[in-house]
Design brief:
Blueprint lengths: L1 H31 L6 H19 L2 H22 L9 H23 L15 E4 L2 E4 H23 L1 H18 L4 H27 L5 H16 L4 H21 L4 H15 L9
Antiparallel strand pairs: 1-2
């Protein structure tokens, strides 16, 4: 029972990271109707920026503050210089453009830091374990769960209770109409794209002490993000949250029950959702 509870908590930790990774992807698609294959690269670069800041300063908290802002700025710069010109193109061309951006970022990382992964140490204040009776759990993993839950609440509040969130939700229904009402839709697109990059970078920061930083983590993350979005439903905040938790818990629990089939069960769950609800659990028709 203790092992199951341990794996369940690990799954929640993975799930909230998957949520942060996926919510930006689903919001971007919901508003821009844009398929972003560079999203996993933002996650990867976030982990490497964390590695650099921690290596230079030894301060993980500084990385937690700065790295997401750096990735958000990078995302906006790429959107303004490359991505926005592909908004009017078919999805297959959008995939080619953003896949090219992702490969360029991956090769740039390999040129600078090499193909071997880098370890990132958690902050000393979160080293060690929490003991509750006979149950023990790593402090850093507990922090990831609590902090990501807080970020989820902040993102939900921003999307549901603010003017920006109302514009994003309205734009996801009819971006042309929002533009006709006098909203600078180009700026709204840029901010939304940057927010998606910021959240992916934040996921990379939180994941770095758990799995390190390596040049190929973006490809893995992109696959997971699309699974989460398919399960939860494209364009749905709640879907990204539920989908991330489902995938994270399933991966973690299955790794102790049937390690070889952990990934298989995730794809099986995605297939089951597609067959029963093609738009996802919470996606719009």
């Amino acid at each position: 029972m203790e092992l199951f509870f341990f794996q369940l908590l690990n799954g929640l930790g993975l799930g909230v990271i998957y949520f942060l990774l996926s919510v930006g992807l689903t919001i971007t698609f919901g508003l821009l109707n844009f398929v972003n294959f560079a999203h996993g690269a933002f996650y990867m670069v976030g982990a490497y920026v964390t590695f650099v800041i921690v290596s230079l300063t030894g301060n993980f908290w500084l990385a937690l503050l700065i790295a997401p802002l750096v990735i958000g700025t990078l995302a906006i710069a790429l959107e303004q210089s490359v991505v926005k010109f592909s908004y009017v193109l078919e999805h297959k061309y959008q995939i080619l453009v953003t896949l090219g951006v992702a490969l360029m970022l991956q090769e740039l990382v390999i040129m600078i830091w090499g193909p071997i992964g880098k370890n990132v140490s958690p902050p000393s204040s979160l080293a060690g374990i929490i003991e509750i009776g006979d149950f023990i759990y790593p402090k850093y993993r507990a922090f990831v769960i609590a902090f990501s839950a807080l970020i989820a609440i902040v993102v939900w509040w921003g999307l549901e209770k603010t003017k920006f969130g109302a514009l994003v939700r309205a734009g996801s229904e009819n971006a042309q109409m929002v533009g006709l009402l006098g909203v600078n839709i180009t700026r709204l697109f840029s901010i939304t794209f940057g927010l998606g990059g910021l959240l992916a970078g934040l996921a990379g920061v939180l994941a770095a002490p758990l799995r390190g930083a390596d040049p190929f983590m973006g490809v893995e993350a992109l696959g997971i993000a699309f699974i989460v979005v398919v399960i939860g439903g494209m364009g749905s905040f709640l879907g990204a949250l539920v989908g991330g938790l489902v995938v994270g818990v399933m991966q973690s629990v299955m790794s102790s029950v049937w390690p070889e089939g952990a990934s298989l069960m995730v794809y099986a769950a995605m297939a089951a959702v597609i067959l029963s609800r093609p738009r996802g659990l919470f996606g719009r028709a």
